[in-house]
Structure formats: C-alpha cells, structure tokens
TrEMBL record:
Domain spans labelled Fe2OG dioxygenase: 223-322
GO biological process: gibberellin biosynthetic process
Any one GO molecular function term: metal ion binding
Organism whose genome encodes this protein: Theobroma cacao (Cacao)
UniProt pathway annotation: Hormone biosynthesis; Plant hormone biosynthesis; gibberellin biosynthesis
Name used for this protein in its record: Gibberellin 20 oxidase 2
Source lineage: Eukaryota, Viridiplantae, Streptophyta, Embryophyta, Tracheophyta
Catalysed conversion reaction: gibberellin A12 + 2 2-oxoglutarate + 3 O2 + H(+) = gibberellin A9 + 2 succinate + 3 CO2 + 2 H2O
C-alpha cells in the first residue's frame, strides 16, 4: 500500500491562506454532531480511507528504571525505543512520572471548554498577550483549508517558559475570563510535566543513537513548545472522513494521551495499525524535525485519527519544538566521512513557516520542505 496521503502531495502555488473557507465560517462540535451526512468539505479521498484491522503490539517502554537511575533498565528502554524508531517512529511509555490526577483534570477542563457556545469559543480564535505565547481555537481548521477538513476542533497553546512572557494562566484569563483561571493553572502544570518528560525521552533517544547523552536535552531545554486539546465529535459516517488525516508531525516529538474511545492509528510494517488506548500510558511519536536531528536514522511517525459513530473522542497532545532560531543539525557523532548529511541545516522557524503558509502536512513534509528551502524559499528583503 502507498502510504502517501493524496490530500497534499505537492508544493502549493499560493499560500495556504488562499485555500481556506470564508473567515466568518465557524464550525464547531455542535455543528458537526448535528449532521446526518458528512459535508463535502470533510470528505477524504478513497485512497486514504483504508481501514486498520491489526493492533500495534510493540513492547511498552517502562521509565521507572530511568527515574531510579538503573542503568541496565535505561539501556533496555533505549533498545526498545531504537527498534521502534528505526521501524515506524512510535512507542508507548508507562511509569512516566506525569500525575494521573493531572491528566484527569486536563480532560475535565477540555470537556468544559468544548461544551461552550461557539460564540465563546471563538474568543480564543487567535489570542496573544504581550510577547509570543499564544492561545488559539480552531473549528475543523476551516480558517485555513476548504477541503479534506478534519472532523474535530482544537484549542492550542504555544508556550515558552520565560518570565518575560505571559503564562498559560494569563492567556486563559485574558481570553476567556476569570472563570477559566483554574483551567490555565491546570494546563500550565500539564505543560510543565510534559516538557519534563519530553526531555527525559530526549536523553534516552541520545543513548539509543550513541551520541552524548545530554546533547538533545540541552538542544531543547529553551524551546517554545505546543500543547493541544483535541475534541472529535460523533460522526454519522466515520468511514468517509478523518479526525486527523494521514501525516507526520513537523515538530520534534509528540506526547499524546488518548481517552478510552481511541482512534489513533499509525503506519507500520506497510499497513495501518491501531494504537489501543491505555489510561496509564503515553504515546510518543517521532516528528520530522527529530528525523533531521538524527540524520535520517529515525523515522517520523506517519499517523492519523479516525472518528466514531457512537462516541466523541478526546486527546491531549504536547509537541516539543526547539527555539525558533536554533539550527537543526545532527550531532557530529552521526555525521562522518562515510556518512553523508540526509538534510541541510535549517531553523524551526523556517520549517514552521513552511507548514503554516506553503504546505499542508502529509507523509512527505520534510522532503518537500528541503526542496522548498533550497530552491523556492522567498528571500527576506528586510
């Protein structure tokens, strides 16, 4: 089977903003779950709508040994992670150190937000205080695209731990009012927990690649990362659309918690496979930026999310990103006279710009970004 999504396989001749629906179009869960048929804007090509019948049965990665300083357990975790990353770029971790009560609270606030009337949700459509940290709501990404829309709505925080920047609590308060101060506090803690876990995973990834153990941890320490709450309403015809279409994340590392409904599927061993939800586990996906940082050794995870006829689905995603101006370049241990560079140097700001304005993420984003970077990137005349 060809793993390519037909929804986006070439560079766009015009920026993505030209492909979107009318700016005044708001699509939220109340609209979606009241449909008796899937609207044409949400229909996906038949080539993409291949069902997954097999469950991914890779071993879980137990992080308890890492936190106890057990070197044998750490090496074992590194071996399991290496096997997964060489194959398909996805693994699940348990005993990860993130409080289950915090995850539960994060879902409670997710439910509360997405149950708001659309008139209140759109107040968070694109909110920023002073600085670069942002809070944004999107209904089916209809503000960016007009076809192959995902059957979902999202609330996204872009955040850097910087005393000069507004915190998540400040963003929620400024955008949604005092009633959502507690939500901001919970998501601030959730973000901090996920950032800490992501740096732990980066340390084990370095071990698995045979490079300086702290190389990637230091690289990402000062990054601005992303947290996203996803809500996938019930769908009358789940076989015709996706909650999220097939793609690889352009970021470096994704940490996902999915609720008991499930819906995450990854492309492994040349077929789509189901990632069953586990309340005690977090799913880790390798993103395109880390593929470049590993000099192409580790695969970015091609994945998608399916929707459900009977039940709405929820998930919490954290995306680890480097600081915008940092040069994405593999460590010297992975590049020597016998090994050529898989990708040119680039910055996260350029890659992010590419996916936001010129290309809709799919299975070939990094490859097409490289071509754009070398041959098509507009010159900055400022």
């Amino acid at each position: 089977m060809d793993s390519t999504s037909s929804a986006s396989t070439c560079l766009l001749s015009s920026p993505l903003e030209d492909q979107r629906l009318n700016q005044d179009s708001f699509i939220d869960s109340s609209f979606l779950q009241n449909q008796t048929n899937v609207p044409k804007e949400f229909l996906w090509p038949k080539v993409d709508l291949v069902n997954a019948h097999q469950e991914l049965l890779d071993p879980l990665v137990d992080l308890e040994g890492f936190f106890k300083g057990d070197e044998l357990a750490i090496q074992q975790a590194a071996r399991v992670i290496r096997a997964a990353c060489l194959s398909h770029g996805c693994f699940q971790v348990i005993n990860h150190g993130v409080d289950s009560h915090l995850i539960k609270a994060a879902y409670e606030h997710l439910n509360r937000f997405f149950q708001l009337p659309v008139s209140q949700k759109v107040r968070a459509r694109k909110m920023t205080t002073s600085g670069l940290n942002t809070l944004s709501y999107s209904g089916a990404h209809a503000d960016r695209f007009s076809s192959n829309l995902p059957w979902k709505e999202t609330l996204t925080f872009v955040f850097e731990e910087n005393p000069k920047e507004a915190g998540i609590e400040d963003l929620c308060n400024a955008c949604l009012g005092d009633d959502f101060k507690q939500m901001g506090m919970i998501y601030q803690k959730y973000f901090e927990g996920m950032k800490g876990l992501a740096l732990v995973v980066m340390e084990i990834l370095a071990i698995s690649l045979g490079v300086d153990r702290l190389h990637y941890k230091k690289f990402f320490q000062d990054g601005r990362s992303i947290m996203r709450c996803n809500y996938y309403p019930r769908c009358p015809e789940p076989g015709l659309t996706f909650g999220t279409g097939p793609h690889c994340d352009s970021t470096s590392l994704t940490i996902l918690h999915q609720d008991e409904v499930g819906g995450l599927e990854i492309f492994a061993n040349n077929k789509w496979q189901i990632v069953r939800p586990r309340h005690d586990a977090l799913v880790i996906n390798i993103g395109e930026t880390f593929t470049a940082l590993s000099n192409g050794n580790y695969k970015s995870c091609l994945h998608r999310a399916v929707v459900n006829r009977q039940r709405a689905r929820r998930s919490l995603a954290f995306f680890l990103c480097p600081r915008e101006d940092k040069v994405v370049r593999p460590p010297e241990d992975l590049v020597h006279s016998e090994v050529t560079r898989a990708y040119p140097d680039f910055t996260w700001s350029d890659f992010h710009l590419f996916t936001q304005k010129y290309y809709r993420a799919d299975a070939h984003t990094l490859h097409n970004f490289t071509k754009w970077l070398l041959f098509s990137k507009p010159f900055d005349n400022n």
